């Protein structure tokens, strides 16, 4: 029995600005089958509205409520805890934090800052941490598939470096945080036991979802997937499939059981 | 019984270009007591000859054989293993690797590159690692005392970030590598049980030396020392002392027992 589907975006639905072949049709098949969907992304180089625009350009009509981003979770954390952000994020993402209060005790917010990661920005963040700031990690991913098709360093390397130097533990706000998966499932009243996650990151999407308590997690061989990824992390995927189309076949089949 | 003394340099003998008060006289007292000394530094922002020049300016006559640096250990490793270096080090240190063979399989060499750490250089190193290069860490320190007197990010944060993303373990060539401490002790025919290390880094110098098997390790309250450091890492220091002068008092006293 499946009553809710979580889909990763980059590497599952699109690669850069191009749809993964069959992705749009696969999502529509889930809709037709009456299965509620939420999109859970660890992308921290785009605002949520840019993500929605990109999906619209691919022919997918998705509402803001259906997309969960780490930046949104961080905004909520900062508001709940009365903290002002010290941002170490991609320039594209800065505006997501524009309207938050300044002047409160700080929390360092680390996303995939890309070229904005340099010694000075990292050392400034480190000094905030040892002066008392909390460390919020929007995403702890090891790698992402870059514009040239090769793997590049994702935010995780910088988060773990800051943790090591400051001897503080990061609070993770995107996948594989259990709270992140749970908040997406809660909006479709889907129990863990009836949920499935589909992603291209064997660690953060797949092992992460299973460790967070979801019953099923499918690994697609698109995006950042590399041969053997399905054996690289525990728990292993429920199934490893060609792409989102084959994942949707699996989900629709399982939802009828 | 003490028959050999290992001294850290930055934070113990000098702070920047200035001697720690009493340091020169303290080293001379060890010499007068007939105790052999080796200087073991994790500094990777200066060549060995620059280190020797600095000591000479402080009035300490030290030979090249008495100073052990991670860069020298890395040169030896590269030669023994038939590897060419891919350098991610401080511009000052590049010349230490100038005469090594190129064209061999690569090893990524990470030092305290300072401003040379940026997204591009780190990602290039990461891609060498996933293409098969080994990872050599000149020093895994968390922090160092910067020119402004505050703590700054040391190479350790970047080493652990690259390890995390590439899923490779670094080979450490400076402190706290047991081989590094041992190679310095061997040149003065000093057994572990009769050796003492003096340093300002409670983790790399002190806990590191004890974990490597040295009988004694003294923590000085100069350099990067921060209140409570003596309780922060295991094994705890044999003793925590004001500075190098008090450390030398301890060593001379112990050498007579």
Automatic annotation (TrEMBL), chains A, B:
<dbReference type="InterPro" id="IPR006355">
    <property type="entry name" value="LHPP/HDHD2"/>
</dbReference>
<protein>
    <recommendedName>
        <fullName>Phospholysine phosphohistidine inorganic pyrophosphate phosphatase</fullName>
        <ecNumber>3.6.1.1</ecNumber>
    </recommendedName>
</protein>
<keyword id="KW-0460">Magnesium</keyword>
<dbReference type="GO" id="GO:0005829">
    <property type="term" value="C:cytosol"/>
</dbReference>
<keyword id="KW-0378">Hydrolase</keyword>
<dbReference type="InterPro" id="IPR006357">
    <property type="entry name" value="HAD-SF_hydro_IIA"/>
</dbReference>
<dbReference type="Pfam" id="PF13242">
    <property type="entry name" value="Hydrolase_like"/>
</dbReference>
<comment type="function">
    <text>Phosphatase that hydrolyzes imidodiphosphate, 3-phosphohistidine and 6-phospholysine. Has broad substrate specificity and can also hydrolyze inorganic diphosphate, but with lower efficiency.</text>
</comment>
<dbReference type="GO" id="GO:0016791">
    <property type="term" value="F:phosphatase activity"/>
</dbReference>
<keyword id="KW-0963">Cytoplasm</keyword>
<comment type="similarity">
    <text>Belongs to the HAD-like hydrolase superfamily.</text>
</comment>
<dbReference type="GO" id="GO:0004427">
    <property type="term" value="F:inorganic diphosphate phosphatase activity"/>
</dbReference>
<dbReference type="InterPro" id="IPR023214">
    <property type="entry name" value="HAD_sf"/>
</dbReference>
<dbReference type="GO" id="GO:0046872">
    <property type="term" value="F:metal ion binding"/>
</dbReference>
<keyword id="KW-0479">Metal-binding</keyword>
<dbReference type="Pfam" id="PF13344">
    <property type="entry name" value="Hydrolase_6"/>
</dbReference>
<dbReference type="InterPro" id="IPR036412">
    <property type="entry name" value="HAD-like_sf"/>
</dbReference>
């Amino acid at each position: 029995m499946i009553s809710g589907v979580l889909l990763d975006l980059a590497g599952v639905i699109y690669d850069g600005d191009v749809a993964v072949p069959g992705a749009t049709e696969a999502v529509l098949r889930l809709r037709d089958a009456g299965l509620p969907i939420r999109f859970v992304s660890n992308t921290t180089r785009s605002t949520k509205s840019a993500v929605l625009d990109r999906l619209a350009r691919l022919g997918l009509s998705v509402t803001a409520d259906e997309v969960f981003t780490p930046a949104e979770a961080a905004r909520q954390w900062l508001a709940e805890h009365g903290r002002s952000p010290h941002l170490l994020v991609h320039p594209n993402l800065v505006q997501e934090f524009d309207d938050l209060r300044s002047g409160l005790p700080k929390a360092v917010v680390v996303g995939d800052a890309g070229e904005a990661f340099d010694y000075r920005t990292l050392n400034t963040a480190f000094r905030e941490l040892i002066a008392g700031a909390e460390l919020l990690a929007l995403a702890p991913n090891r790698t992402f598939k870059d514009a040239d098709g090769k793997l590049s360093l994702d935010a995780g390397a910088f988060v773990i470096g800051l943790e090591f130097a400051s001897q503080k533990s990061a609070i993770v706000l995107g996948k594989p945080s259990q709270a992140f998966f749970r908040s997406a499932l809660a909006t479709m009243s889907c129990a863990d036991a009836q949920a499935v996650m589909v992603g291209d990151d064997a660690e953060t999407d797949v092992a992460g979802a299973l460790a967070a308590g979801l019953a099923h997690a499918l690994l697609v061989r698109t995006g950042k997937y590399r041969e053997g990824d399905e054996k690289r992390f525990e728990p292993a995927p429920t199934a490893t499939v060609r792409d989102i189309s084959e994942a949707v076949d699996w989900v629709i089949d399982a939802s009828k059981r």
